[in-house]
PadR family transcriptional regulator (Nocardioides renjunii), 386 residues
Amino acid sequence: MARRGDTIELAVLGLLHEGPMHGYELRKRLNLMLGWGRVLSYGSLYPALKKMLRANLITEVAATTTPTSRRPRITYEVTEAGNEHFQRLMSEVGPTAWEDDNFDIRFAFFSSTDMEIRLRVLEGRRSRLQERLARVQGELERTQAEVNRYAAELQRHGVESVEREVRWLSDLIRAERGDESRTPAPGAPTGSD
Amino acid sequence: MARRGDTIELAVLGLLHEGPMHGYELRKRLNLMLGWGRVLSYGSLYPALKKMLRANLITEVAATTTPTSRRPRITYEVTEAGNEHFQRLMSEVGPTAWEDDNFDIRFAFFSSTDMEIRLRVLEGRRSRLQERLARVQGELERTQAEVNRYAAELQRHGVESVEREVRWLSDLIRAERGDESRTPAPGAPTGSD
DNA sequence: GTTAGCATGTAAGGAGTTACATGATTTT
DNA sequence: AAAATCATGTAACTCCTTACATGCTAAC
């Protein structure tokens, strides 16, 4: 039922989906991927890996050593069950999926899902942001408004950022829709911006 | 020493600085202020208020009742000690101050600090973001690059957003600097953007 | 040879959420 | 009269961070 903290699990499964990897490397990739903000610590990654091993979602692929006989590193690989679990988590489109972190992770692994899921996640995220915009703008009319210039400026900047993200999502949705078979790459220019 | 979790404390002191308020209202204002993401729950607000009462940072201003004799609400007020603590927290310019949440809170209450502090916080935040940009862009050259179009698009969008925030900060810094006595409001147009 | 980065882990603790519990007041 | 929203709280739990512990390997 995709609880809040399945984020690491999803991320690990997604990365291992691209090929076997050891813990240290997983952490680096993850931090690069979501590095805009919180940084994942060993204290949460390694226990999570252990837990996933016990749950049979991943297996140790024997300790590998690079050419020059380094310290053996424990390389992990997804199992069948792990892949199924990954697919299930990715398909579970619900409130948790639109939250910042969860959305980012899901988006990063979009290549491993169907367009149908992609569209639902993108659209869900977009309406979530639009709701927030509406709520904040409505509330701004009732409250303060003029008092505290800095707080107001922060709000203004926040609204602008969210509006930008909404446009970004709209472009992506449009790209997905017009993608039936042409595949013009998600980063391709689409007119706006 | 401004630990991570002093965020609520700082926020509460900052809001009460503008006038007495009761818990429920504090929560609403806080969520509106930082509402772009996590929402503060009663389970963290009320215990925090209790803790601040014990620490003598705030006092109960007797239960107020509105005209129509409503259920009494416990209204809080900052104490002398509370104001001192607030000023000290705001002046503590250090790594914790540039983190997303902490920065936002500090920025929102900039009116209650000196320009010197404001500049240090703005500049600190800016260099932090620039470091992140440099690190990510450097790392992007070594890793993947072409594999996984969606992950790449997420990175691109992330970089763009951070670059925007850097420009925003630069505008604010410029405004502060040229503010010696003219005070052109932080949201005033400054050329870029 | 010593610093920096690679590599894996554990234990304790912090901060905050969820769920529970209660009840008044306003709106529909 | 019911539903929504105001209003205050507590207890259990979760996730994660910090700090500790260990040792290898590459570069300077």
